[in-house]
């Protein structure tokens, strides 16, 4: 169980570090993480902890942007 938690924390750090470079489209974010296992667990963990935010992109609601929340920036800085 401990190894699973560590793996999830490391994947979460990698996911948030990618978002730290700037907002990404929702579809592009899901595509980039589609081959990573467990993508869904990382996504769920990030959203449940409030580490990411979703907002309308430049094309409106057709392209939702995923970005770090303040909590996400704080989490990365603390690690």
Structural description of this entry:
It is globular and about 40 Å long. The protein has one domain: Arc Repressor Mutant, subunit A, CATH 1.10.10. A three-stranded antiparallel β-sheet has the order 1-3-2. The mean pLDDT is 84. A hairpin with a 2-residue loop joins strand 2 and strand 3. It is an alpha+beta fold and 79 residues long.
The total of beta strands comes to 3
Order of helical and strand elements: HEHHEEH
**Total number of domains:** 1
- Helical amount: 55-70%
Distance linking N and C termini: 21 Å
Strand order of the largest sheet: 1-3-2
The largest sheet, given as strand count, sense and whether it forms a barrel, is: 3 strands, antiparallel
For this structure, the CATH topology is Arc Repressor Mutant, subunit A
Indicate the mean pLDDT. Answer: 84
Report the CATH superfamily: Winged helix-like DNA-binding domain superfamily/Winged helix DNA-binding domain
Give the class-level CATH name.
Mainly Alpha
Class by helix and strand content? alpha+beta
Strand content: 15-25%
Principal-axes geometry comes out as globular
């Amino acid at each position: 169980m401990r190894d699973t938690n560590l793996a999830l924390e490391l994947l979460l750090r990698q996911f948030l570090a990618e978002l730290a470079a700037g907002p990404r489209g929702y579809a592009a974010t899901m595509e980039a993480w589609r081959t990573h296992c467990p993508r869904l667990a990382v996504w769920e963990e990030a959203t449940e902890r409030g580490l990411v935010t979703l907002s309308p992109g430049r094309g409106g609601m057709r392209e939702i942007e995923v970005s770090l929340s303040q909590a996400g920036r704080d989490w990365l800085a603390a690690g």
